[in-house]
Amino acid sequence: MLKYIKGVKNEAPFMYFEEISQIPRASHNERAIADYIVSFAEKRGLWCYRDDVNNVLVVKNATQGRENEEPIMLQAHTDMVAEKNVGTEHNFDTDPIELIQEGDILHARGTTLGADDGFGVAIMLAVLDGDTLSHPRLECLFTSSEEVGLEGASAFDYSKIKSRRMINLDSAEEDTVIIGCCGGIRTELTVPVSQEKGQYKGYKITVGGLCGGHSGEDIDRGRLNAHILMGKILVKIKEQAPFRISHITGGDKDNAIPRECECVIVPSGEIDTSKIQDFARSFLKAKEDGELFVKVEKTDTPRVISQKDTESILEILSIRNGVMYYRTEPPILPETSRNLARIRTNEGDISIGFSSRSYLEERLDESTRELDELAKKVGGTTFHHERYPGWASDKDIPLVKNWQDAFEKVSGRKTSPTLIHAGLECGLMSRELKGLNAISVGCNVHDLHTPKETMELSSMDRIYDTLIRFLKK
C-alpha cells in the first residue's frame, strides 16, 4: 500500500522507493540499506552475498524454459548525495527523507530526494519480488558509496558475477541510452597558513541562493560556482583596500557544484559594499541561479591569516573552473571539466577539494598537473585519489537495440544512444568483467545533487515497464 505516492500505474517500484526513503543512506552510511536488502532476499529465498563495504548481490534464477539463456546483471547504487537547504533541520544519519508529491513530480522537503539512485534500487527490488515475470538469470548488484568515488564498485569481488550483459539503472533521462561516460579523479589541495590571533573588526561575506547541481552533468549549464564567484567578489573588494582573510568555507560534496560560500575578511581601511550585490549578479548566466544573494555584515573575528596566505587563496579561487574543453565530434558536450567543490579553514591550513572529469586520460593528467603546479606556487600540497576509468560501448550491440525497441513499444518514442559527462560504475565493471556489454538507462530526474532534486513519476513508470518488456524478450 502506497503511503505518499498516488496515481501511478505500477505500485511495486514506488512502494520500494517509499520504503528505502525511510532508511538513511548517505554515502558511507549504507549499513542499514544493506541490511534491508539482505533481509528482503532472505525472506524470498534468493541467493545473496554481502561484502565488507555493504555491496549486496542478489541472484534470482531464470524462469522455467529460460535456463539456457545468458544471464543479465542489473545494477544501481544504494547511497545518495546528502544536501539540504540552509535552515532545513535534517540529520542524514538518522532522519528519513520526507517525500512530497505535486502532480507528476516527486521531491523532498528541503533536502535531496535520493532518486539518484533510489529509483534504480526500487525498480530492481520490484523485479526481484515479482513471481510472474519471465526472465533469464538475474544478477542484481547493489553497490555502495558510488557518490564519493565509486568506492563500492571498486572493492567488489567480480568473480561472483557470471553476466556479460549489464543494465546500469543510474541515468537521469529516459529518452537516452547511455553507452559511454568520462573518467574522473578527485584532488585535495592543502595550503598551510599563518594565523594571527587577536581581536579584529571585519566583514562577513555570504554568497548563497545558487542552484548548484551535478558537477558533471550540469557543469556546462552556466550555473555559478559559489567559490569562484566569491573569488571575483574578493578581487573587486581588493581594488578598494587590501585585506586579510580570517576564514573561508563553502561547499560540501566534491561531486556537487557549490551553492554557498562564506568568507570573513579584515580590510586595512573602509570599503564600500553597496554595489557588491549588483557586481555579483552581473555574472548570472543561468536562470536557475536567479535567487543569488550576497550578504555583507560587519563582524568581529579572533584571527586572520597573513597577507601572503590571503594572496595564495585568491590565486586558488581564480584557477580554471567549469568546462575546460569541449568534444569536437557528436555528441558535442564537455570533454574535460573541473569543479572547485569544497573549502574548509582548519587550524593551521586551508583545504580545497576539486573533482576533474574527462573522456581522455591525458586531460585528467593535465588537470592534476595544473593543480600540482598551483600547490607548489602557493606552498601547498596535493593528494590525488579515487581515480576511475571512462567507458564506451558500441551503439549497435543487441543490448542497445533491444532496449530501444522495448522503450518505443512502451512510450511510443524513440531513444538515442549517447555519452554522458559524468562517471558511472560501468567503467570499473567493464575493466573487471572482460567482454562486458553495458548500457545505462533511467527515468527523468532533475537537479541532481541539490535540494531541488525532482523525479517524474510517470517516467519511472515507463522505465519500469520498459525493463519488464526487455526482460520478457
What does the secondary structure layout of this molecule look like, with pairings?
Elements: H1 11-21, H2 31-43, E1 47-50, E2 56-60, E3 72-77, E4 99-102, E5 105-108, H3 115-129, E6 138-143, H4 151-155, E7 165-169, E8 176-181, E9 183-192, E10 195-208, E11 213-214, H5 226-238, E12 243-250, E13 256-257, E14 261-267, H6 276-281, E15 293-305, H7 307-317, E16 322-326, E17 334-345, E18 349-358, H8 361-377, E19 381-388, E20 391-392, H9 398-411, E21 416-420, H10 426-432, E22 437-441, E23 445-446, E24 454-456, H11 457-472
Parallel strand pairs: 3-6, 3-7, 7-22, 8-21
Antiparallel strand pairs: 1-2, 2-6, 4-5, 5-24, 8-20, 9-18, 9-19, 10-14, 10-15, 11-13, 12-14, 16-17, 17-18, 23-24
What does this structure look like?
By secondary structure, this protein is an alpha+beta fold. The protein has 2 domains: 11-182 and 390-472, 3-Layer(aba) Sandwich (Aminopeptidase), CATH 3.40.630.10; 185-388, Alpha-Beta Plaits (2-Layer Sandwich). The protein is built from 11 helices and 24 strands. It has helices at 11-21, 31-43, 115-129, 151-155, 226-238, 276-281, 307-317, 361-377, 398-411, 426-432, 457-472; strands at 47-50, 56-60, 72-77, 99-102, 105-108, 138-143, 165-169, 176-181, 183-192, 195-208, 213-214, 243-250, 256-257, 261-267, 293-305, 322-326, 334-345, 349-358, 381-388, 391-392, 416-420, 437-441, 445-446, 454-456. Strands 1-2-6-3-7-22 form a 6-stranded mixed beta sheet, with helices on one face. A 5-stranded antiparallel beta sheet has the order 16-17-18-9-19. A 4-stranded antiparallel beta sheet has the order 4-5-24-23.
